[in-house]
Amino acid sequence: MKKTARYVFVCGGVMSGIGKGIAIASIGTIIQSRGFEVTAIKIDPYINVDAGTMNPTEHGEVFVTDNGTECDQDIGNYERFLNRNIYDDNYITTGRVYEAVIKKERNLEYNGRCVEVVPDIPNEVIRRIKKVGRKTGADFVLIEIGGTVGEYQNALFLEAARMMRLSYLGRVLFILVSYLPVPKSVGEMKTKPTQNAVRTLNSAGIQPDIIIARSEYPVDEKRKEKISTFCNIKKEDVVSAPDIKSIYEVPLSFEKERLSQKILNKFQLRPKKKDLTRWEKMVRAIKAPQRKVKIGIAGKYFRSGKFTLMDSYISVIEAVKHASYYFEAEPEITWLDTEDYEKRPKLLSELRKFDGIIVPGGFGQRGTEGKIQVIKTCRTQKIPYLGLCFGMQLAVVEFTRHVCGLKGANSTEINPKTKYPVIDLMEEQKKLLSKKEYGGTMRLGAYSCKIAPKTISLRAYKNRLISERHRHRYELNNTYKEKLEQKGLVIAGINPETNLVEIIELPTSNSPRKFRDRKRGMYHPFFVATQFHPEFKSRPLTPHPLFRGFIKACLKRV
Ligand code: GLN
User: Fold this and answer.
1) Is pLDDT above 90 for 309?
2) Domain locations in the chain as residue ranges
3) Cα Rg for the chain, rounded, in angstroms?
4) Which residue's CA is the nearest one to ligand 1's atom 1?
5) Is 471 near ligand 1, meaning CB less than 6 Å away?
6) Residue 220: closest CA among 257, 249, 252, 245
7) CB 390 near ligand 1, within 6 Å
8) Does the structure show a pLDDT above 60 at 518?
């Protein structure tokens, strides 16, 4: 039987950064727990066709889907909370919408009529949303309209939502995620900004059905009443959503307010019995950790003026958390700015206080020499190390320089004239870059990798053939492969079609004495680096095997 999808639009009021993405992902989790199929769409109002060309300090992490779309980090949240893969169609940007409309116009698909912003742009948005419903066969399509109500940028998306409600009566719901500040000088929770947000939404022809009231504290009955009166909404449809420590607790916090039942009631669907057992078990582990694990992440995309942004590496952080929770440990993450090690090499000795170090993905020269020094310290001091993409490439550079003795070895991304280009641009990338074709042209998305026997990776994955997501232009130059192996580097994973090196390791041993003895060569408790990004596939209920292996090794150091 053909399913009829229901559409839930979620938009934000008052200000950005109040956890709209997590709210939507959590709504997904609780509806799913009632036995319904859920998918989620992210609408980003910027002109960029995708997030691939944006600097992470500007936009946060660029998430990559299995089919190679470089998208907003919220898609990562959806995947993590829904425990499902999300694909290209679920990511809509102004750039994508206009690009499609202009292409159709050029192809005479509008039959010679005048193509106009309204209704042609909203219609294209609606077409895309419906396509997701059709293709995924989901019972519920959740749609996040990026930005805050009242911005110019998202007006056409709100218009699409309004039009959809009109055409699909009873199948479209609106949720406003708003913010209630508690100014210190006043000491009281204020509802006025939310009232204004609703009024702005009203002027776009939309009345919210449910308001999720985000605040530092729970929203009391008095405030709920006030919102009810002034925002024209039933009191029970105001959902209190106070700050909580872990994002993974949000679905449970929503259920305390019986949100899934409220949503299903609005669609006149009978709520099936809910099952959040696994989720509850995980949250219990998060709340009562048995021990701590100290992880250093060495990168460069976290300074924004005087603020530290963690958004640039959100999937890495979450993957560390998932694996730590699995072992009932609480991760303590420290940001290591690698430029500091270039200026003050003495700081490197402090790395020993960490249980493990990660060098995540990265681009360009700034901070790389510092990263190489960090990696060298991990290798020689036997500190568990996990390198992700750039963190793998630089581990190879480090090994080539300091173990193979090829001084000045480098990636051609950092030094195009290096005598030993041990990391080099992939052949097909050379043409693309010479034509300045940057957008969406890296080696992107899922590729398979064959794992070598008797490796740390095989022990972790328990599978010889795996598939992981990529985002890079450079690769290990296979002319150096033999030399690296001769000197003790383990090539632990290879792409079976192209022979590209996907994983490198140092040999390990069951006898810790071997790597405790610094002089006895390469043995290391855990030194694994991947050309792919395992962090994109880690989920709270199914932590990634490599991150699990890494955290396990880190905990042994504690
Ligand atoms: N800059 C490197 C490359 O393009 C690594 C990319 C990354 O870390 N995602 O190959």
Assistant:
1) no
2) 6-91+127-281, 289-555
3) 25
4) 363
5) yes
6) 257
7) yes
8) no
Question: Would you place residue 511 in the very low, low, confident or very high pLDDT band (cuts 50, 70, 90)?
Answer: confident
From 52-61, 175-184, 239-248, 438-447, the region with the lowest mean pLDDT = 52-61
- Rounded CA-CA distance 26/395 in Å is 38
Q: What is the DSSP string of 313-363?
A: GHHHHHHHHHHHHHTTEEEEEEEEEHHHHHH-GGGGGGGGGSSEEEE----
CATH of 6-91+127-281, one of 3.10.450.50, 3.40.50.2300, 3.40.50.300, 3.90.79.10: 3.40.50.300
Distance CA(341)–CA(508), nearest Å, equals 28
Q: What is the pLDDT of residue 305?
A: 61
Calculate how far, in angstroms, residue 523's C-alpha sits from the geometric centre of ligand 1: 27
Strand runs labelled E in 35-123: 38-44, 63-64, 70-71, 91-93
One of 3.30.930.10, 3.40.50.10860, 3.40.50.880, 3.30.110.40 is the CATH number of 289-555, namely 3.40.50.880
CA-based torsion, 92, 93, 99, 102: positive or negative:
positive
Q: Which residue, by CA, sits nearest to atom 8 of ligand 1? A: 361
Which residue is it, tokens 């396509």? 131
Q: Which residue has the tokens 């992490």?
A: 61
105 catalytically annotated: no
β-pairing, 474-476 vs 421-425, is: antiparallel
pLDDT tier for residue 84 given thresholds of 50, 70 and 90? very high
Phi/psi class of residue 415: alpha, beta or left (left: φ > 0; alpha: ψ in -120 to 50)?
beta
| Catalytic, out of 322, 472, 533, 544 | 533
Mean per-residue pLDDT for 95-123?
95
Residue 101 has pLDDT above 50, yes or no: yes
Reduced to 3 states, what is the DSSP secondary structure of residue 510? coil
Q: Do domains 6-91+127-281 and 289-555 have the same CATH topology?
A: yes
Question: What's the mean pLDDT in 55-80?
Answer: 91
Would you call 17 exposed, middle or buried from its count of C-beta atoms within 10 A (0-12, 13-18, 19+)?
Answer: exposed
